[in-house]
Each structure stands twice: as C-alpha cells, then as structure tokens.
TrEMBL record:
<dbReference type="InterPro" id="IPR003439">
    <property type="entry name" value="ABC_transporter-like_ATP-bd"/>
</dbReference>
<keyword id="KW-0547">Nucleotide-binding</keyword>
<keyword id="KW-0067">ATP-binding</keyword>
<dbReference type="InterPro" id="IPR027417">
    <property type="entry name" value="P-loop_NTPase"/>
</dbReference>
<dbReference type="InterPro" id="IPR003593">
    <property type="entry name" value="AAA+_ATPase"/>
</dbReference>
<dbReference type="Pfam" id="PF00005">
    <property type="entry name" value="ABC_tran"/>
</dbReference>
<keyword id="KW-0813">Transport</keyword>
<feature type="domain" description="ABC transporter">
    <location>
        <begin position="4"/>
        <end position="226"/>
    </location>
</feature>
<dbReference type="InterPro" id="IPR050166">
    <property type="entry name" value="ABC_transporter_ATP-bind"/>
</dbReference>
<dbReference type="GO" id="GO:0005524">
    <property type="term" value="F:ATP binding"/>
</dbReference>
<protein>
    <submittedName>
        <fullName>ABC transporter ATP-binding protein</fullName>
    </submittedName>
</protein>
<dbReference type="InterPro" id="IPR017871">
    <property type="entry name" value="ABC_transporter-like_CS"/>
</dbReference>
Length: 226
C-alpha cells in the first residue's frame, strides 16, 4: 500500500498583489513506515507540502491521497507537530498529552496507557504534573510530540519541530524521534532546513528548490545498524 501519495501537485496562492506558485508539479509516494525528510531553503514549499497531506491546503491541480483515499478537507487522524509546541498553559504535561484523547473520545484506559508509554519513551517521567512554563523548550516539544502521537496516527507530520531549540537539545530530541519511529513504525514526514538533520533522521531525503517549489532530488539513506 501507499501511506501518502502526491501526484502532479501544483499549488498557487493568489492575493490582491501577488500570485505565488508555492509548489509545482510535485509527485511523491511514501510507503507505510517510511521516514521521509523534506529539506530545502526557506520558501521552497516544504510547509505547503505537509499542509497538502493534512488537507489544510487544497491543490490547484493534481491529487493528494492518504492511505489510498483522496484527501478532501482536514484530515483528523494524522498527527501534526509544529515549531511552537502550543500547549495549554494551565494544564500539566500529562494533561496536555491527554488533550488529544479528549478531542477524539479515546477510551480512558487506552489513552492513559499510551500516554505513560510515550512519557517513558521521551524521558518525561517526573514532569507529568509540570505546567508548560515550568518546562524547558525541549521538554515542551517532547510534550507536543507525545500529544501528536497519542492516538497512534497512521502518519506523523512535523514542520521544523525542534527549529527553535539549541543544537544539543535538538540532537537529543532527534535521537528520541528516531527511537519512537523504530518502535512504533509510524510513517513520518518531517520538514527541516538542515541537511545534516534530514540525513540523520530520514530513510529518504527529498530536496526541494524554490521559485517555484519543486522536488529537485531524492536520496535513499542507508540505515545504520542498531
Ligand atoms: P517553506 O516551508 O519551504 O518555507 P512555504 O510552503 O511556507 O515554504 O511557502 C512556499 C511559498 O508559498 C512561499 O513563497 C510563501 O510565501 C508562499 N505561501 C505559503 N503560504 C501562503 C499563503 N497562505 N498565501 C500566500 N502565499 C503563501
Ligand atoms: P544546522 O542546523 O546549523 O545545519 P548541523 O547541520 O550541524 O546544524 O546539524 C543540524 C542538526 O542535525 C543537529 O542539531 C541535530 O539535530 C541533527 N543531527 C545531525 N547529526 C546528528 C546525529 N548524529 N545525531 C542526532 N542528531 C543529529
């Protein structure tokens, strides 16, 4: 099967003053369990590509499908993590993670089990009750990552998730993302502007170029042995 498929997708944004081709004739096929990283300079259409998959941007032409079904409108079952964690300030870490369960009406005991597993995987133990402002930026992103993964989404989309963090924290979080991906076999699409990060994380690296945003090259990355 195919987890994500874009076929000849072009997106044009038109405002009163400007007309921008954000992505042009992009085709991409992602198999279940793949970790695809999308790299390229600012403005090359990386975010637009993720939004297409999430159903938040509609193609001007071409088609997008998720697990074999055409994407028409916002996709509720995918996970999405952004550069800003966007946590609820008045709720502790664990309750922020469980927000996902409440929004989806997940069974409580299943949600609790998943939350505890993700808290363990991301090293958030001991911080379950901490409020966002009591957590470092890296810890806040861990909470956001757990929240995005709580319902075991078939596809996880990440848009520069750790871009605002210092290099060391980013390296730690990348290692955790890699471990979570290996343990859960989630299909991941991650956008970054760092080639080093793209190569470290991805099983496949998609390089985009701007004006208009196109796929320039794709590389398969050899996975290091465990
Ligand atoms: P990247 O994530 O690689 O920085 P984006 O996908 O955010 O690139 O943007 C690609 C191009 O499309 C840019 O020129 C950007 O200004 C433009 N763009 C993105 N979203 C919109 C929008 N909603 N309206 C108008 N132009 C947009
Ligand atoms: P920049 O973002 O300025 O391009 P680098 O290219 O040096 O910085 O590295 C970017 C990021 O790539 C690192 O901060 C880290 O998140 C990730 N990275 C690169 N190599 C590794 C690795 N071996 N283990 C974990 N993360 C890595």
């Amino acid at each position: 099967g195919t987890a994500v498929e874009l076929d000849g997708v072009t997106v044009r944004f038109t405002t009163k003053q400007t007309r921008t081709t954000a992505v042009q004739d992009v085709s991409l096929r992602v198999r279940p369990g793949e970790f695809v990283t999308i790299v390229g300079p600012s403005g090359c259409g990386k975010s637009t590509l993720l939004k297409l998959v999430a159903g938040l941007v509609r193609p001007t032409s071409g088609t997008v499908s998720l697990q074999g079904r055409p994407v028409a409108g916002p996709q509720k079952d995918i996970g999405f993590a952004f550069q800003r964690a966007a946590l609820l300030e008045w709720r502790g870490a664990r309750k922020n993670i469980l927000l996902q369960a409440e929004m989806r009406g997940m069974p409580r005991d299943l949600a609790a089990r998943r939350a505890d597993e993700l808290i363990r995987l991301t090293g958030l133990e001991g911080f379950e009750q901490a409020l966002p402002h009591e957590l470092s930026g890296g810890m806040q992103q861990r909470v956001a990552l757990c929240r995005a993964l709580l319902h075991q989404p078939p596809v996880l989309l990440m848009d520069e998730p750790f871009g605002a963090l210092d290099a060391l924290t980013r390296e730690q979080l990348n290692a955790e993302v890699n471990r979570i991906w290996r343990e859960t076999s989630t299909t991941v699409l991650l956008v970054t502007h760092s080639i080093a990060e793209a190569v470290f994380l991805g099983t496949r690296v998609v390089v985009m170029s701007p004006r208009p945003g196109r796929i320039q090259q794709e590389y398969d990355v050899d996975l290091p042995a465990e």
